[in-house]
């Protein structure tokens, strides 16, 4: 009634802006249309059942995108037809695709979404957003109807493959996100993230289905009439993501948000209107409300009961979660990510004395966190870590527990370098849940339940958290002291770790010693886990100055892939920077200086230009073997 859907404007609330009221009307009318057109039929007849579901909140959304449609519909037989015939082929193929795409989608939605339980929110080209509605009392697991719809759609799409060339097929990649107690917008963002993951997994799956060692045609685009393999981030976790026996893939989550306790209700009888005094009462004592944005997020989670002409305001307050984060060598990067998890109201850091020997070092860490992120309140305590041995570590944790007998965490953050600590904490706090970070995703253990997706750390923030900084000349400072190593060639984040790379540009003896000494200082301060150290071009001198288990002295295939160089990568019209004995060396990569080696069998000049292709094989000196692109290949 406050929106005026009953054609009466008498009780329309003045607190609702016209734009939001218009959106409400559009959604209301579409739901009404869906309910009328797609009412659940009787199993044994055509009679219609009454709508028994009542109010139906959105419980899951899916974002879908067609796989390599641009490649699928590129004409690969231009030489066989005249231009007029080619245009006719394109028109007929486009028409047939659209007809089959939309007909199969509609039939899949109608099959599982009777009574508008599954609705198409967006249908723009091959970009589709589907939503699942569920009754208030459950009825079926979140996302079940939506996944069933995707399975039926994937099966019916493959009927179109009979009209396509060999190895070509129509499929899609989908990301499915279920409701975790929040609004629609976060669900859509998570679904978009899973959709991108699904696309990468589909390409990785198809890569293994090429014939005769050639790239799969669905993974190649035409350049100057020649097939060129596309690039993507490989993800081998596709086996459990396929929809039935089809080539379509869905990446989905199981839901749940991090607070395991029920929301609390803030009840205010005899409600008349919102006032500053009322808002202050709601916010009082709530640790999750740290600014106006979070206050607005809480106030939106309310409803009003009206009985006997009196109104009662009920606001759902999320239960504040206490997170316990052990911090040892190699686990500092997780602190910022733990602070970002929604619903966390307090962070308690357990700092190991081997890394933080005194109050001053611990305070520097807290101050660095405050300079990087708006975080919940942080407390800290010191314990003996794994360096004290299993018994010493366990006894130290028990002593800390006795000193803080009134503290019980809701969750414990798990990292690979703190497993011994976590084992003792789990025994002391059996009711606490375990959460772990894998790339940008936070999972609840042991259920493997995704509870949050976070943005990766920036390199500057990561260095600051480890007491380091990069000067304008790309030299490293640690705890305010300039390290002896020469300027870095490259410094960047790779996943959840930082990569520090030096490349030899002069006589290697002195720089290799300085780099080795600086790396030892870093490892002694923060451990071996947080950084990947690379020192290329220094030869045996670097191996003598550092531990080869800690420092990569020879580039491997992963370093080339990070720079966009893989088997089949082509470089045209390039000249060698060094020639010797029928061999030429070429600079590769976008930022980091990597080397390609071409064996010619005859003397060549630095002024000559070559068309070369990477073979994917690395020499013992860490060079990518290159091969000439022969004229017959181009033809």
TrEMBL record:
This is Uncharacterized protein. The lineage of its organism: unclassified sequences, metagenomes, ecological metagenomes.
């Amino acid at each position: 009634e406050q929106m005026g859907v009953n054609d009466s404007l008498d009780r329309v609330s003045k607190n609702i802006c016209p734009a939001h009221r218009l959106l409400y009307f559009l959604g209301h009318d579409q739901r009404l249309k869906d309910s009328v057109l797609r009412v659940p039929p009787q199993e044994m007849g055509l009679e219609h059942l009454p709508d028994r579901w009542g109010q139906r909140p959105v419980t899951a959304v899916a974002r879908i995108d067609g796989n390599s449609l641009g490649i699928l519909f590129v004409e690969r037989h231009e030489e066989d037809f005249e231009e007029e015939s080619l245009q006719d082929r394109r028109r007929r193929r486009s028409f047939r695709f659209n007809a089959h795409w939309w007909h199969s989608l509609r039939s899949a939605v109608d099959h599982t979404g009777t009574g508008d339980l599954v609705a198409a929110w967006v249908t723009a080209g091959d970009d589709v957003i589907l939503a699942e509605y569920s009754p208030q009392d459950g009825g079926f697991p979140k996302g079940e109807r939506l996944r069933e719809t995707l399975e039926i759609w994937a099966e019916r799409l493959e009927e179109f493959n009979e009209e396509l060339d060999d190895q070509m097929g129509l499929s899609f990649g989908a990301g499915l996100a279920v409701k975790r107690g929040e609004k629609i917008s976060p669900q859509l963002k998570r679904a978009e993230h899973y959709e991108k993951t699904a696309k990468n997994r589909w390409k990785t799956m198809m890569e293994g289905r090429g014939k005769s060692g050639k790239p799969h045609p669905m993974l190649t685009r035409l350049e100057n009439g020649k097939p060129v393999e596309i690039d993507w981030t490989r993800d081998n976790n596709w086996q459990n993501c396929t929809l039935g026996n089809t080539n379509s893939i869905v990446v989905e989550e199981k839901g749940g948000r991090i607070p395991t306790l029920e929301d609390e209700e803030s009840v205010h009888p005899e409600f008349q209107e919102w006032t500053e005094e009322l808002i202050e009462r709601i916010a009082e004592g709530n640790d999750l409300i740290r600014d106006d944005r979070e206050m607005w997020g809480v106030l939106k989670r309310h409803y009003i009961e009206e009985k006997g002409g009196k109104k009662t305001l009920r606001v759902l307050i999320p239960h504040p979660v206490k997170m316990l984060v052990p911090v040892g060598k190699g686990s500092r990067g997780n602190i910022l990510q733990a602070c970002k998890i929604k619903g966390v109201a307090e962070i308690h850091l357990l700092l190991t004395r081997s890394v933080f020997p005194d109050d001053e070092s611990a305070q520097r860490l807290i101050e660095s966190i405050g300079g990087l992120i708006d975080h919940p309140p942080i407390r800290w305590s010191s314990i003996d870590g794994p360096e004290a041995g299993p018994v010493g570590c366990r006894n130290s944790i028990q002593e800390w527990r006795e000193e803080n007998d009134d503290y019980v965490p809701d969750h414990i953050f798990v990292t690979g370098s703190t497993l011994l600590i976590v084992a003792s904490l789990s025994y002391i706090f059996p009711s606490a849940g375990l959460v772990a970070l894998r790339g940008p995703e936070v999972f609840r253990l042991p259920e493997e339940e995704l509870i949050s997706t976070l943005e990766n750390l920036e390199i500057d923030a990561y260095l600051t958290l480890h007491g380091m900084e990069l000067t304008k000349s790309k030299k490293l400072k640690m705890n305010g002291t300039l390290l002896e190593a020469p300027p870095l060639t490259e410094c960047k984040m790779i996943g959840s770790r930082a990569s520090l790379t030096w490349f030899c540009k002069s006589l290697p003896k002195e720089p290799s010693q300085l780099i080795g000494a600086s790396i030892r200082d870093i490892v002694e301060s923060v451990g071996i886990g947080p950084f990947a150290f690379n020192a290329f071009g220094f030869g045996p001198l670097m191996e003598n100055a550092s531990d080869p288990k800690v420092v990569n002295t020879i580039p491997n295939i992963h370093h080339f892939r990070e720079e966009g160089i893989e088997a089949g990568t082509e470089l045209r019209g390039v000249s060698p920077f060094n020639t010797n004995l029928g061999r030429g060396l070429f600079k590769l990569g976008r930022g980091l200086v990597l080397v390609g080696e071409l064996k010619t069998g005859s003397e060549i000049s630095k002024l000559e230009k070559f068309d070369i292709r990477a073979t994917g094989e690395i020499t013992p000196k860490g060079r990518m073997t290159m091969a000439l692109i022969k004229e017959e290949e181009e033809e």
